[in-house]
Amino acid sequence: MPSAPVVFDIRTALVFAALMLGVGLFGLMRRRNMLLVLMSLELVFAAAAVAFVAVAHHVRTYNGQIFAVFIIMVAAAQAAIGVGLVVGLYRHRNSISTQHWTGLKG
Amino acid sequence: MPLINLHWLTIIGGVMAATLLLLVPEVVRARGGRSAPARAVLRAADALAFPARVISLLHTGDVRMHVLCAVVGAALLCAGFGRVPWPDTPPVVEATSTAPSPAAADHVEITATWPQLVLVATAVLGLLAKVALRDRAFVPVLVLMFASLAAAAALLVHLYDPLASQWHDMMGLMRLDPLAVLGQTALLAVAAVMVAAALFALSDMAGRRVDLLVTLVLAVVGATVAVASTDMLTLYTGLALMSVCNVILLGMASGDPAATEAAMKYFLATMTAFGLLLFGTALLYAAVGDTQYDGIADGLARLIAVQRGPTRLASAGLALVIAGMAMLIGLVPFHMHLPDACQGAPAAVVGFAVSVPAIAAVFVLVRLLMGPLAAVGHIARPFLLLLGIGSLVVGSLATVVQSDPRRMIGHLGVALAGVVICLIVGISAHLAGGQGMPYAHEALALTLLMAIALPAGGGIAAAALHGTRLDMPSPDARAAARRTIASGPVFIGAMACLGLAAALLHAAGPGRFIDMPSIPRWTAVAALVLAASRLTILFWRLSAKPSAPVPASAKVRSTAILLTLIVVAVAAALCAGYVINAVTAMWP
């Protein structure tokens, strides 16, 4: 039986991206493990990339798709820096939990 | 305008009173404070410092708190932006588009990117030199780097023609207009000064000195690209390159846990800022259908003319873009990471890492407010003003209870960013109003110069105060000389605060100060006076007689620097007064 085509319009795409953003930001606020924090950060960037691609398809221009490629590229560089920081944190205190890194405060 | 009048006397009296309020408890505490009057003084001081302690307690050092404040701030901005009605009449959009002609569409004009290409070539040469020469590469790379910064500045001056009908433009992505030339030249100059200052503190960078120089050049490339951007794509890539390089610089002293912590906090905060900025850009793109500044301006004008369409989408996008930029500048409540980064960063890079992002972000915000967001500026300005005043109050109060001078300078940076934002909001309101203000562009240029000078001075002071605590005497002559040199920028900050507070009070007479009703205006003045008082105490402590003799060369050098800085401070204070008077005198 042929299935009905799935329509993924701009509203649905933006709501989906907003949900991804919300989940990413919640992870940033909730998680202590630096690796999970980095994954939440990637979710935030992925949300922006999804929104750009959806809008580009909707308005029939290429700007959004190019933007999404740049977001993915820069996010990869940022992830590399983040993992380097995780290694640095672990070397100092044998822990990658952010709750052990509260020396600078006040 | 008389030099001495009631306003100046009010300011001087206020500063003296505030200084006494802050100074007397310190003296009492230093002498033991056991008698009944002494205990009363200390109790009163504790009561006065209560708000400052509350603000200080909020800085828990937990990165999750930083993100929470940013998310709450962004949500409040979104809610606020959605409630402000859009204007009834469409704005007059000036034809600033420099789209390439059909004949020129076959080739790409890269003239606007020559300075960046020179800097990137320098970075590549530096890396190759490190591979070839290893430890001996530092001096050649240092010379090459200064030469490239000078060459890039010379190229900017050469390419800039104030009488040209069209600026150099690269495919609508970057443009060498006056704002871009001013911002890029300032960034190059500040970078050169910060590198010169870093040369005195390279001991904790052993083996990584060439890496430091190369990373620093690449960060300048990112900042200059962002300042000259005419598309959200180049804005994002420029700022991202700058931030990634800054994180590397902050974490470069890998043996120091504080530096690693500072890098981690700065990384998470800036990445959150980029998340907000990108999602806001996507929403704006959905509302207007373009990411170029000219396209965004046209799209917003169309939305206003039709009074239909996704205005709420555009409002949310605008709010998120403003939130992202505020986090990069360090405005309350998006500021929590800045004092931490300032306190924990290695001495060699703290000046650069603190000043360059703030300068670049201020220039970018000015470009956005004057260009693509001008049509909806009346929605953004009140919220920016709130962020500015909040930064002034919170930043000034938080300095009161700090004992680490570098952290104190971080909080003061937040307060001074608030001052600059208030001024920019006022000037952009004048320019948007089209009331023929004769000094608007001069005022804007002077405000931007102040936006360059204040973080740069703070950066120099923060770098020079490495390893110094206010509650400890100078252990040796070298530390004493360093403290004396650092007191110069501190003095500049105090003078700038005084000048601004005086100008604010002057502005209260003939006109109004940037739409501020009297209570926020006086709050801003009080916060400035408090900041100036705290800076005065810091200056007094830093320039106190050292416990060990200072070498004659250090004395001569620090005195010369101090005298120069005093002259600059007086000029800056006069300029600030001139700027605000010029703005407010034309206000209806």
What does this structure look like?
The complex is a heterodimer of chains A (106) and B (588). In chain A, 38% of the residues are buried. Chain A has three helices and no strands. With 106 residues, chain A is mainly alpha-helical. The termini of chain A are far apart. The model of chain A has no long low-confidence stretch (mean pLDDT 89). By secondary structure, chain B is mainly alpha-helical. Chain B has a domain at 376-588. Chain B is 74% helix and 1% strand. Chain B has a two-stranded antiparallel sheet with strand order 1-2. In chain B, a hairpin with a 3-residue loop joins β1 and β2 (174-175). Chain B is globular, with a radius of gyration of 24 Å. Chain B starts with 5 loop residues before the first helix and ends with a helix. The relative contact order of chain B is 0.10. Residues 509-517 of chain B have low confidence and may be disordered. The interface between A and B is large, with 51 and 54 residues.
Number of helices of chain B: 20
Number of strands of chain A: 0
Order of helices and strands of chain B: HHHHHHEEHHHHHHHHHHHHHH
Percentage of residues assigned to helices of chain B: over 70%
DSSP strand count of chain B: 2
- Low-confidence spans of chain A: none
Describe the secondary structure blueprint for this structure.
The complex is a heterodimer of chains A (106) and B (588).
Chain A: H1 10-30, H2 34-59, H3 63-93
Helix pairs in contact in A: 1-2, 2-3
Chain B: H1 6-30, H2 36-48, H3 50-58, H4 63-83, H5 114-133, H6 138-159, E1 169-170, E2 174-175, H7 178-198, H8 209-227, H9 232-250, H10 257-288, H11 293-306, H12 311-329, H13 337-344, H14 347-370, H15 377-398, H16 405-433, H17 440-464, H18 477-508, H19 518-542, H20 552-585
Antiparallel strand pairs in B: 1-2
